[in-house]
Amino acid sequence: MDEITIRECTTIEEFDSCINLQREAFGLPDLEISPRRHLIVSRQAGGWTLGAFDGDRMVGFVHSLAAVRPNNEIYTYSHMMGVARDYQNKGVGARLKWAQRARAMSEGRDFIKWTWDPMQSRNAHFNLNRLGVTVHMYAANFYGIDYDLPGEHTGVPSDRLFASWSLNSPRVSALSTGVANTLKAQPAKKISIPSEWSAVLRRDAQAAIDMQARVRSEFQNAFAEQLVCAGLEREIDESRYLLYRPEDLGIAD
């Protein structure tokens, strides 16, 4: 989408467009939406929001916070990304993430962190296979009980995987240029999820909760064994997370 431009959001009107996109993309109640003041204060504190614009219309955004690691190293925390429904699956999200990487690197950062729902195979594919993140941590019910329909809880805990994006790693650098970079190592473990999680939720909420609990347990056990999640296999009905021994990926455990 060559007509899309990416630039930093700086005006009240642009931040308000981010709020509208949150409502459209996530379907969350106002209680769960990051307000204008949060975006403005984040910018004053060293964070920034990048917007994707088609002419004068903002069609996507990614919001980044300044964060601190235990060793007092400053890094970038990617709090949220949203894309207008009629621009989804058209490469806007990828444009925003690679622009986020470039901006973070221009500030001397080499690491970005964020979360995603482990049951969402499309997000997993995007993060693991297209961006090259690794995962070392699983959080149970991170945000409290999740929403399905606007304003309505599903009863499903908001479990999250934490993406670790090492911006200068050889794999991420290759992927940033559009070069496919398939892992050659053999996975030590696989964790299966349904390819269409929303269909499972609609069909049987209790079965979905039980399935999520199984996935949670398998990830927690794998991370206790010091395995690292770094890929996803996708099929029509089922997807499988791929977990590796750190030494097989050439990274420290």
Description:
- This protein is an alpha+beta fold and 253 residues long.
- 35% of the residues lie in helices and 32% in strands.
- The chain has helices spanning 12-26, 36-44, 92-106, 121-131, 170-176, 197-203, 205-224, 246-249; strands at residues 4-8, 48-54, 57-68, 74-83, 111-116, 134-139, 145-147, 153-157, 160-166, 189-194, 228-234, 238-244.
- Strands 1-2-3-4-5-9-6 form a seven-stranded mixed β-sheet.
- Helix 6 packs across helix 7.
- The longest helix is centred in the C-terminal third of the chain and has 20 residues, at 205-224.
- The protein is globular, with a radius of gyration of 18 Å.
- The relative contact order is 0.12.
**Measured on Cα atoms, how large is the radius of gyration?**
18 Å
Helical/strand content category: alpha+beta
Q: How many strand elements? A: 12
Helix segment tally:
8
The percentage of residues in β strands lies in 25-35%
Q: Residue-averaged pLDDT, rounded?
A: 93
Percent in helix: 25-40%
Task: State the end-to-end distance.
Answer: 39 Å
Query: What kind of sheet is the major sheet?
Result: 7 strands, mixed
Order of helices and strands: EHHEEEHEHEEEEHEHHEEH
Principal-axis shape equals: globular
Runs in which pLDDT lies below 50 for 5 or more consecutive residues are none
* Strand adjacency order, main sheet: 1-2-3-4-5-9-6
